[in-house]
Specification:
Distance between the termini: 57 Å
CATH class: Alpha Beta
Number of strands: 4
Helix content: 40-55%
CATH topology: Endonuclease, Chain A
CATH superfamily: VSR Endonuclease
Largest sheet: 4 strands, mixed
CATH architecture: 3-Layer(aba) Sandwich
Structural class: alpha+beta
Strand content: 5-15%
Strand order of the largest sheet: 1-2-3-4
Number of helices: 5
Radius of gyration: 17 Å
Shape: elongated
Order of helices and strands: HHEEEHEHH
Number of domains: 1
Length: about 140
């Protein structure tokens, strides 16, 4: 049972930003490294955080909580059944999105948010290297 009305909860959820400050920072670094891409492409399955259609590249920056990181996932104590189902559905959807892109010959990279907390530059470099490798493969 929620402690606020359904309308209040709906307004609260609508105020959650779709793009995080972390994604802004990552994009700024990649852009400064010379990469050009689209962010949060609504027309694409799973709404990738970074997409380059020309090279068939999608990158997802996965939150440790929302995507059930094996190292950092913590199940909330209240409303456990709801959260268990919600997080399992998220994992299932991630799997389906990966399969969708891979079946079409796309290159998919999923990277955990904790990788950026541990070493931001190395995580950005991982994305950069992945995209450059995909770009080189598509040129051949």
């Amino acid at each position: 049972m929620d402690i606020v009305s359904k309308d209040t909860r709906s307004r609260m959820m609508q105020n959650i930003r779709a793009v995080s400050k972390l994604e802004d920072r990552i994009s700024r670094h990649l852009w400064n490294m010379g990469l050009r891409f689209r962010r949060n492409v609504k027309g694409m399955m799973g709404k990738p955080d970074i997409a380059i259609k020309k090279y068939r590249v999608v990158v997802f920056v996965d939150s440790c909580f929302w995507h059930s990181c094996p190292d950092h996932s913590v199940m909330p104590k209240s409303n456990e059944e709801f959260w268990r189902k919600k997080l399992e559905d998220n994992k299932r959807r991630d799997f389906e999105v990966n399969n969708y892109y891979e079946s079409l010959g796309w290159n998919v990279l999923r990277i955990w948010e904790h990788e950026f907390r541990e070493n931001f530059d190395a995580a950005v470099e991982k994305i950069y290297d992945f995209i450059v490798e995909c770009r080189e493969k598509s040129a051949n």
